[in-house]
Each structure stands twice: as C-alpha cells, then as structure tokens.
Amino acid sequence: MDPSEQLSAILPAISDLVEQIDAEDLRHATPCANFDVRDVLDHMIVLGGSFTYLFRGEEPPAQSAPAEDGRVPIATFRKVMDDLLDAVRSDGAMERIVRSPVGEMPGETFARLVAFDGVVHGWDIARATGLRYELPDALIGEVDSFARGALTDDMRDGETFKDPTPPPDSATAIERLAAFSGRTV
Questions:
Q1: Structural domains in the chain?
Q2: Which end is more exposed in the chain, N or C (fewer Cβ atoms within 10 Å of the end residue's Cβ)?
Q3: Could you tell me which of 10, 12, 89, 78 has the C-alpha nearest to residue 56?
Q4: HSE-up of residue 150 (Cα within 13 Å, Cβ side)
Q5: Closest Cα to residue 36, out of 100, 124, 110?
Q6: Measured between alpha carbons, how far is 82 from 48 in angstroms, rounded to an integer?
Q7: What gap in Å lies between CA 185 and CA 179, rounded to an integer?
C-alpha cells in the first residue's frame, strides 16, 4: 500500500475521532509525554498545515494553532487533514525531495513518517478520551514495518520519540506500534 493510500485511511479516521471529542476531554493527559488532548490537536494542526506546503514543494508560512476558546477545533482539524491528504495526492508529491523537520527525504518516505505519526497520535487521543479508534491491522502492520526500519536511534531524543517500551503480551497491533514509538501501553 503506498503512503497516500495509508493516509487516505488514517487521516479521515483521526478526523472522525476528533469529531467525537467533548470539550472536557481537551485537558485529559495523553500517552504522548507532556501533551494533553488539546496539545496533540494543536500539534497536528500546526504540523499538518506545514506539511501540506512541503508536499506541494512550497515554503510553509508560519502556522499557529486555533485560538483556545474551550471548544474542540473540529472544523479546523478536518480542513487541515483534508488539505494534507490533497497535498500528498498532488502531482509529484511522492517524488519531490521534502525538507522535513527530520531532514531532506523523498516525499514518499516523508508521507510514511506522517502516517506513522498520525497513527500513533490518533491512538494517543483515543487512549486519553476512551473513544474508539480502529484501523485495519494490515495497515498498522505496514506502518509498523516502515517505522521499525526508519526510526533511528538519533531520532529517539526522549521528546520526539522515546526508547521503545515492552508491550503486554495481549497488545493489539496498534498498541505494539505505540510501544515501539516509546509510549507506555
């Protein structure tokens, strides 16, 4: 499955998850260190907005999270994820060299990193809110396989990614991926 197909499943699933969040969920701690639900949403909105430009070969303008007003930024989140998916699918996006936050790489590689990040952050939100977030195990397996080959020790700085944690024997595919990213499952 190419990364645009992966993101075609992942980004709408995360947007659907965000539509279910209640305002009181925004301050719930997530498995992503030092991030509550609002922080994860803001992070995804800002980076997703920037990544949209990168996939189109453009310099991203300064991005900012929506003003904090106690509401879940559902419309903004969905628009950013939809725009990101359109950019990933745009002509030349997979072949273009992208100057990503973790270095220059082909768009296809960067899209796979975005898929990995998206899957794990969706899991963070679901864990913090108790909401259902499901993706096909085959998709999770592809993302996991890529992540295990792409995530280098120097990327495990304790903030972006922590050292992997041992998942329980009963862990699902997504929980094993989250544990690999450094989350405690």
A1: 3-148 (1.20.120.450)
A2: N
A3: 89
A4: 22
A5: 124
A6: 10
A7: 6
